[in-house]
Design a protein that fits this description.
Strand order of the largest sheet: 4-3-5-2-1-6
Oligomer: single chain
Strand content: 5-15%
Number of strands: 6
């Protein structure tokens, strides 16, 4: 499905050739203490953190910086995002999907709903992209046995950081993320994508597995290649490149305030428009941290 790999790596990427390139130290350019940046992936198990002795790095920083502060009140986040998720009255789910398709994909939705007993009709007021976001989690949970939707890397970093009394900083607001996820693509295209996904949910599972394998190997070059195969420049420009540019405006000030552990989707790290290149251009030294490498105090 078009956008599938970009979506996974983002709802979740150079000129670096070796593997194990998802964790880096950021130093120089006036920083009194180094900061660190880790590229996450929504399908990866928490066990990957053991390879990097990640618990020790929490003790070296004062701040956890993420795309969105998920330690905020979850109801407040949901309320902030809700207006962007609701469809206009003339474009609700059953109005933008034919009755035949709606009946067919409703049966498939039951198989992959992330919450037992929830049916497609319950999403009637929502934009199709909201359904896609939810059902993709269910599909991955069924087709990738090692995937646990209740154990997400991004959430782990923030919850653990909060437990250790680290400041949690979100680079974006819930409203901004909702705008990007649910308003970028026209509702008609969202509906087409949803129907395509639910008519053949296993269609892209091989690519999802490739993406997961590339991430677990720390091979950003392979992730970059999979992303480029999707050939959707507008989608990448909005969800990756423009966001990278905004983060690169904020990160210098954040790191100057105190050593930080920055946690963003691996898709955002590599490439000429990636965060790593952007930080190097600003004068920082970016040093890869390899699995099993001793922690430098």
């Amino acid at each position: 499905m078009k956008k599938f790999i970009l979506f996974l790596a983002t709802v979740i990427l150079l000129g670096i050739n070796c593997k194990a390139q998802i964790f880096y130290k950021i130093s120089g350019n006036g920083l009194e203490k180094p900061s660190y940046i880790f590229g996450t992936h929504h399908l990866a198990p928490l066990s990957i953190l053991d390879q990097y002795n990640m618990d020790a790095y929490f003790d070296l920083v004062d701040q956890i910086v993420a795309e969105l502060d998920l330690t905020q009140d979850q109801m407040a986040i949901a309320m902030a995002m809700q207006p962007y998720m609701l469809a206009p009255a003339d474009s609700t789910l059953s109005k933008v999907i034919s009755p035949e398709d709606f009946a067919e994909i409703s049966e498939t939705f039951k198989q992959y709903s992330p919450i037992p007993g929830v049916e497609l009709s319950m999403f009637e007021p929502m934009k199709p992209a909201v359904v896609t976001t939810n059902v993709t989690v269910g599909i991955m949970a069924k087709l990738l046995p090692d995937f646990n939707p209740e154990q997400q890397l991004d959430t782990y970093f923030m919850i653990t950081g909060a437990d250790k009394d680290k400041e949690i900083i979100g680079l974006e607001t819930p409203e901004f993320q909702a705008e990007q996820l649910f308003n970028f693509t026209p509702i008609s295209q969202q509906a087409k994508d949803l129907v395509e996904l639910l008519k053949d949910p296993e269609k892209n599972i091989d690519k999802a597995k490739e993406l997961n394998e590339a991430y677990m190997a720390g091979d950003l070059n392979a992730i970059e290649a999979l992303k480029e195969d999707e050939d959707d420049d507008d989608f990448e420009q909005i969800l990756v490149v423009e966001r990278n540019r905004e983060w690169l405006k904020k990160l210098p000030g954040i790191m100057a305030d105190g050593p930080s552990l920055i946690v963003v989707g691996a898709l955002h790290l590599p490439g000429e428009e990636g965060v790593l290149t952007g930080l190097r251009t600003q004068g920082y030294t970016i040093t890869p941290i390899m699995p099993g490498q001793p922690v430098e105090h």
